[in-house]
């Protein structure tokens, strides 16, 4: 199956809502509540993401038969190929003609469509296939996610030395790490899709017996602000 339609013109069937959100996996998690709210009336929704994440985002909406997830080849692909073909699409973030407050970018996503930002948490959902049982007794291990390739590093001196360290690496799917996220006694994350995943899982009632640690210092917020968090994160500034 091709993750995106071929051809210059992208036909849009009637009675379909097309949404151009930001394309990364972390953005897909933040806008999960937005997508589910739009899809709640049963209308067909076409949702975009980067082609790298199309299988992960499709799996996240497996319980919504009226949501079709398509992959784009980046932001220029959206701006120069998709947007001219779908002029009535809902555009958020950098795709919107409206003012985009990058200091509160996650909140701005929702406000641009006239939605309450609390939907980011209250409307977040996962299909039954991703609603795994959480172990009652956690493994004495630290799950670590940083990004040395972009120099978003976690200082190893800040990690507990009395527990096993597991570093998140590439797997076939983003969701392949979900068992370790649920089983680990501590999560040590940079600002990333995994941070947003843990935040969303906490909103669903998971991770109540997990120590959540955000290594916020690893990212430079000179242009954009940090994402809003409601879970009880311990933050290394």
Structure explained in plain terms:
The structure is a single chain. The protein has helices spanning 25-30, 32-39, 54-60, 75-85, 105-112, 119-122, 178-183, 193-203, and strands at 16-20, 44-50, 67-72, 90-91, 139-145, 164-167, 184-189, 211-215, 234-236. By secondary structure, it is of the alpha/beta class. The chain has 2 domains: 16-122; 132-236, Rossmann fold (3-Layer(aba) Sandwich), CATH 3.40.50. The radius of gyration is 18 Å and the shape is globular. The model has no long low-confidence stretch (mean pLDDT 94).
Extract low-pLDDT stretches. Answer: none
Over the alpha carbons, how many angstroms does the gyration radius reach? 18 Å
The biggest sheet amounts to:
5 strands, parallel
Count of domains: 2
Main-sheet strand order equals 6-5-7-8-9
From the N-terminal CA to the C-terminal CA, the straight-line distance is 44 Å
